[in-house]
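Q: Please design a sequence for this.
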């Protein structure tokens, strides 16, 4: 058994969609058999851009959590962590801020993209986004970080931070490695990248009826006017979906032949795809309905994982304080006392 430690996470920006499912959640679920896994609910990271909508975060956390569990993230085997409930994330991020220059952070592509896309004046928090992410990873001394390609520059910063720390203060942190999933990228129903805010996503919490409606409105081959015209399979999201969700390979092969020959219409094809997709999602939806009907249980899962993680976080921060020359014994053992003298 590979004993490597894995940490990954998502910002709770809303419910998860089927692109998350096949791109990340299914592979996360599979990692749990052989690795010690930490799954982080990165709620502090949400605030780096979306700090003006405090009403949304809690709902988004609950929705994301129900989706994670439904997709097979197992709190018995893995540790689910609420970032904002473990102060050591913010503390380590502050200390790592000392080891990273502003110029280095300004060169990170996601930072430049966000400024351009959202047309905003960057905050200290946004500039420090990858520093906080480095703290998330190194706080638990994770060696592997499954992420999408866009996150690799952040992993690189975590590696540099680890190296720099070890150089200055002695061997402390591993060199974390990014792990790219080889799952195919699922397009949205309009054939652009599937994105929560583009209006082109099929969500895990959608009903079978909603799913069918979305599939029936899907983009197909725009060059095809009549069902008898020869159609294009490549670049046609209907077939991308069939390839991923239809377990009967022969059936898919036959549809492709018929489509190219102009023997099957888009409507018939989409009807079948809706059935296939609903069938694929049925067990997940059943689990999801069960979890979302028990909000207390969801929160218990979150807090018991967080409590377990906090022990490890405290150990690491204690070690970091010592190595950086701060007074030891403060972080982990100090009790919080009320002015009256009572322990809280
Ligand atoms: N930045 C990641 C994303 O947007 C979320 C994240 C926060 C993360 N901390 C992390 C991912 C640590 C991996 C490891 O998807």
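A: Design:
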């Amino acid at each position: 058994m590979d004993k490597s430690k894995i940490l990954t996470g998502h910002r709770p920006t809303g419910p998860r969609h089927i692109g998350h499912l096949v791109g990340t959640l299914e592979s996360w679920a599979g990692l749990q058999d052989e690795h010690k896994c930490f799954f982080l609910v990165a709620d502090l990271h949400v605030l780096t851009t979306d700090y003006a909508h405090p009403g949304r975060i809690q709902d988004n956390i609950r929705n994301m959590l129900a989706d994670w569990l439904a997709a097979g993230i197992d709190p018995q085997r893995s540790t689910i962590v609420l970032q904002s409930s473990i102060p050591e994330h913010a503390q380590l991020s502050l200390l790592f801020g000392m080891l990273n220059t502003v110029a280095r952070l300004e060169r990170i592509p996601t930072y430049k993209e966000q400024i351009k896309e959202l047309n905003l004046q960057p905050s200290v928090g946004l500039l420090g986004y990858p520093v906080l992410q480095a703290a998330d990873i190194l706080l638990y001394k994770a060696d592997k970080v499954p992420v999408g390609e866009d996150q690799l520059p952040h992993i690189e910063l975590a590696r540099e931070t680890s190296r720099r720390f070890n150089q200055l203060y002695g061997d402390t942190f591993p060199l974390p490695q990014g792990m790219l999933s080889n799952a195919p990228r699922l397009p949205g129903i309009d054939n652009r990248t599937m994105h929560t805010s583009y209006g082109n996503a099929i969500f895990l919490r959608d009903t079978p009826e909603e799913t069918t409606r979305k599939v029936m409105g899907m983009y197909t081959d725009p060059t095809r006017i009549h069902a008898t015209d020869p159609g294009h399979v490549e670049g046609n999201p209907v077939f991308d979906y069939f390839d991923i969700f239809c377990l009967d390979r022969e059936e898919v092969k036959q549809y492709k032949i018929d489509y190219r020959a102009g023997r099957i219409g888009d409507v018939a094809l989409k009807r079948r795809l809706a059935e296939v997709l609903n069938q694929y999602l049925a067990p997940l939806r059943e689990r999801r309905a069960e979890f979302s009907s028990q909000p207390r249980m969801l929160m218990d899962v979150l807090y018991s994982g967080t409590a377990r993680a906090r022990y490890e976080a405290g150990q690491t921060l204690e070690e970091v304080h010592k190595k950086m020359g701060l007074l030891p014994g403060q972080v982990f053992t100090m009790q919080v006392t009320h002015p009256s003298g009572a322990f809280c």
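Q: Thanks. Anything notable?
A: The first strand starts at residue 5 and ends at 10. Residues 196 and 215 are 16 Å apart (CA to CA).
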